[in-house]
Protein 1
Amino acid sequence: MKRPTIADVARRAGVSKGAVSYALNGQRGVSEATRQRILAIAAEIGFSPSSAARALSGATAKAVGLALCRPARILGIEPFFMELISGVEAELSARSYALTLQVVADQDAEIAVYRRWWAERRVDGVFVCDLRTEDRRVPALEELQLPAVVIGGPGHTGSLANVWSDEAAALAETVEYLVALGHRRIARVGGLPALLHTEIRSDAFTEVCGRLGLDESVTVWSDYTGEEGARATRRLLSSPNRPTAVIYDNDVMAIAGLSVAQEMGLQVPGDLSIVAWDDSPLCQLVHPPLTALGRDIPAYGAHAARQLLRVIAGEPTGGLQDETAHLTPRGSTAPPRVR
Amino acid sequence: MKRPTIADVARRAGVSKGAVSYALNGQRGVSEATRQRILAIAAEIGFSPSSAARALSGATAKAVGLALCRPARILGIEPFFMELISGVEAELSARSYALTLQVVADQDAEIAVYRRWWAERRVDGVFVCDLRTEDRRVPALEELQLPAVVIGGPGHTGSLANVWSDEAAALAETVEYLVALGHRRIARVGGLPALLHTEIRSDAFTEVCGRLGLDESVTVWSDYTGEEGARATRRLLSSPNRPTAVIYDNDVMAIAGLSVAQEMGLQVPGDLSIVAWDDSPLCQLVHPPLTALGRDIPAYGAHAARQLLRVIAGEPTGGLQDETAHLTPRGSTAPPRVR
DNA sequence: CTGAAAGCGCTTACAG
DNA sequence: CTGAAAGCGCTTACAG
């Protein structure tokens, strides 16, 4: 089946190829009546302009890129990324932009992908996830002048636009809630320490614990996997002065932690309260359902996409603060049982 | 920063653009020494051929498409898709192919996306997921002559190539294992009935239960969500002659089912054995860990990608059978407690 | 083995 | 408001 070209449309409409181009792109240069006739013919013969030809003529590629730097099993189990992608996609496809996805092994590979995409003119811009405090991707993208939006922050984004959520405030709210329930020994199982948002949460945890005089608070580090979350929980619950509440940096580790508590014969929430960051349907699958910090991740992705299209269009764009995660109390938190 | 073009490389190397093209694409027409010199210069100035120009010149777009027809929250919670994508991606990027992702609302929208991709020459081929018994996408793709690989089957794929796994055998093995443990009343919580693989599993379930004389077997339908899985489980466990074992069509429903059993005061596995399809890290997060049917999903994706590249290359390609899921017994299955 | 040239299908100044 | 034409950066027959 031969694909229709702009020449086919022009011939049928009895106009020049230029006129068809103007009509399709909503440019002035054709009368409204002609435009309508051209659009009708294009629809009739199923014409869509070749993205290659369009990109080559200096117009945009109508595609943006997302590189993900996580192993397959983590990508699979974390609902976060797929929800983010869904939201990004919804916004992009409404504007006829395609999303190009690439899984990379490390930052160097990711930067190489950006360079290739740029050289190939394959994308008009990119999203940057999992920002680090010293992130080499930021200067690399600045040097390429490839439009980019960082999904994260605030801070450490150089001259790049970003969308972010106030993680410090969400963490403080959580600790205050646990203290209000009567907890004093609160632990936190953190995610990868190299990630900026982990650092932001850690600093906030230290700050709020200091402010509230919780001198037995402790943070242990993990990597977002269930295995590590379970191990960290075992360590915490084996200490002589074990915590009465644990805040986990993601849902997967929280569920693993719940399982460990049950395995060690502890009642949740009687002996141990559990809070999960990243509220997802997973949190309501377990028994008891987990108290969790959640926000609308597809919307976050949609906002990032809108922001990136703005950068690509050359509009002035800076940082955009998204909603702060809110706490949904469920069965996994309660006042500590007196021992 | 100006992007280097093939002309820049040609000028530096003192050869024609054609020679550079031949050198880059491994074609005959340049001496080996010249080829090496050209490649070195290309690497030095960071040249990658414009994908747009390349696609326009009749070469391939070096991109393939994947349309996903599931709502955001299901995509997020099912590890299957992200693991599949990881595997697809690994294979594609090794061959310098990009993956274009689009989330669609229904089959009509998906077909429209295929038509647009085809008209735009945006992709060289596509993957088809979630095959149905009467699937309109198959004739649509045949008509477009857009290279495609169905991830699913066997059967109902028309003239399209496919990769598939023997779900019937895996189901039979599971039922036989439960019967060997002493179970006679086995129930199944199925996924969406419109999907071919659900039908294949259902037919296999009926067949094996008939063969083994399990006349109290029952299947209830669900939609892969935890909510529906929980509801189906409540219904099953409330019946006077409740099953002693339940097989779930995905991990999420199985975890929800475990939670419902615990909530109803039943011991797992003493009062109820549970088997999950789609073994994923989730199955090991809960207590007890779930006996599950698993296989290597990233590898499945990689095989699908290799198959699609073969179709694109015009090589003869038919159906490719992937490994059959195998049962990993864990703590959620045991002989039924005598009542 | 190498070079000059046509052509892919668009967009966009430039004339009319 | 419309048409003819150049040009984007490649690939690939066609001559030499």
Protein 2
Amino acid sequence: MTLVQEIDTLNVERLFYLKGEVDHMSRSTKKDILLQVAERLFYEHGFRGVGLKQIISEANVATMTLYNHFSSKDNLVEEVLIQREERYWSYLDSHVEMDSDSPFILAVEAHGRWLKEQSYKGDMFLRAIEDYAGTDNEIENIARGHKSKLLQYFQLLAQRKGKDNERDLANQFTLLLEGTTSMTTLIGAEKATEYSIAMARTLVQHTS
Amino acid sequence: MTLVQEIDTLNVERLFYLKGEVDHMSRSTKKDILLQVAERLFYEHGFRGVGLKQIISEANVATMTLYNHFSSKDNLVEEVLIQREERYWSYLDSHVEMDSDSPFILAVEAHGRWLKEQSYKGDMFLRAIEDYAGTDNEIENIARGHKSKLLQYFQLLAQRKGKDNERDLANQFTLLLEGTTSMTTLIGAEKATEYSIAMARTLVQHTS
DNA sequence: TAAGAATTAGAAAGGTCGTTCTATATATTC
DNA sequence: GAATATATAGAACGACCTTTCTAATTCTTA
């Protein structure tokens, strides 16, 4: 059982909410295309900066096809976030060898690769929190859920490695990842990751 | 001469661009109110999430008063960013004692106080870069200018303190500040700053 | 007090937005 | 092959957007 799977068993309700009753096998292809196109456009221009017209146009789909799969634009945003989160965790999971000497460093490296391939410009979840905060929206919940799972991830990792200050270490590494993501917008994923790995090594060595 | 002033002399064109020909003494009160209201609303709901109608309504001014002072919404965004940047730098300048033993720590602390008072939720400049990227807009230039000035700031600080790896240190501290800002959205400025200061101390001590 | 500048409320123009509707066409399934 | 589900194009809706216009009013200042 991977670390992410373990966290999921701790948060059963949230997981159920995330996966819903969706049968992944019988998923419509059109829906997948819509999710993919929407994610790209939302990420590039922001949720509010992209209209449904552009999405259906680039997805080569009729208006009603979108509304057949998603009850509203907000619902589309929600599903985009859920899909992106799943991809992020499977990415982290597949790159972090828990029994390694330094799983923390591996996590930072994996996050760096994710940035290089999927997040060259800012963080979609943070953006969702900011854009939809205070509007009593499910979107914010989903995005915040992802972030608290990140904290849990590092906390559990610290626990596994017998660190006594799990909570502090988890927060520091989450801060490090968030900083790397922001820096990617400024100096690119390559350099940002280089610096964060250097910092991570220093932290692991010199934190009680 | 403070460190920020010194950086400004290095970037004369940009400074001139920022300050323009504006005579701060004869500035209209209405304009100030508009800038203040717009900054608050833009920060809370995003540039695209706030309409001019809401801004003029909360500022208690007429539509034409806004257009008398700003040529467009984009121009309003620009001036809001410029004003916010000025406030940020005077904030940092007034809190960082350059001759201190650890000006780096002071800078992190000052940034933390800025977050607590002015940026409880994300970074306005990063957001501007993301929202307006690729649209050939002055807004992105202003926001990116602010970020590169931040890098310069730490680079100059490192240089002053006789560190040999100025560039690396500057990038690492900028990453740290950006991470703190992001974490503020998740766990609040208080705790985020606490963690970043701890990390900063570790870094200063154990980086060549 | 007279003249010029700034501000006012509100309407109007011209767009785009999210969403719904209609009517036709294409797939899928029994 | 009939029945059911899914997709199509595109018009229509009302709401909201930024920007412009008008004409009356208030403020500033010489």
